[in-house]
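# step 3/5: fold
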Amino acid sequence: MDNILKTSVRSGPDFLVIGAQKSATTWLYSCMRKHEGLYLPPKKEIHYFDRSKSYSSSSVLSEASPLRRYNLLTAAQALKTCFKKSSNWDDFRWYLHYFFSYCNDKWYRNLFRRRQPHQVAGEVTPGYSMLSKADVAKVKQINPHLKIIFIMRNPVERDWSAYLMRLRKHQLNYDDMDDDYVYRFFEFDGCRMKGDYLSTLLHWQAHFPKEHIFIGYYEDVKQNPINFLKSVFDFLGIRKTDSWDVFPLSKKMNAGDKRQIPERFKRFLSEKYANDLLKIWELTQNDHVKNWHDEALKWSETVDCN
């Protein structure tokens, strides 16, 4: 039995994928669901630890009691989701528990009760990258041996991708948005915190040893998804697969608008992130981060002629 199964609490999760948003977490969740040695709930993004209203996460769990959580309309919508998302009776019961049970640590651990004895269990919620140091300490109380997976993407590209996703989600026309709207989005707390990789690393490393934190890179997912998954599976201590045919290796998740970021916004975001990227490179010594920093520095030093 590998080390993670020896030391972890056999209820609740053994690992968390904490982000970053728009960094292939949906793809990773879909691949993990295909590995027989892993158990992930039928719902991506549980949002248990970031359910506080102080975070910008979209969560139905801000009220612990389902009686306070819903009115008739929202309860009906939740029940509709139970039917829509359930592929079998077990999934339907899972969704009923998720939406209509009292929310506490016992409730959270029960979300993983369907795991088999040989399986490593975890969940994928990119919003956890925003957690404060105090809230990361609460995560550790669930399982002090938890393993953490954090995928980083060039934050300039991440913010722009998040902006395009916002337009798509709210059915807004790209050409109708003026520059002030775009800049306000980049400065919005949710966007700012999701791109604040430095705080994420410092907060999680303050409570979990470095050997329990896997830092991955979006470029590696794009360039060699099999090698990336092998690294993740090795980190979790599970058997590598003999066949990759069942994994959606090349499937694009949440694919949207691919238009390039205009120079004025790229300059703005480069200035925003250049200093943090230098500090992140000092922590990670990773070539991808070095390239992000060098590009941000180049753009932040260019003159805006508009």
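# step 4/5: annotate
Residues 1-9 have pLDDT under 50 and may be disordered.
# step 5/5: archive (pending)
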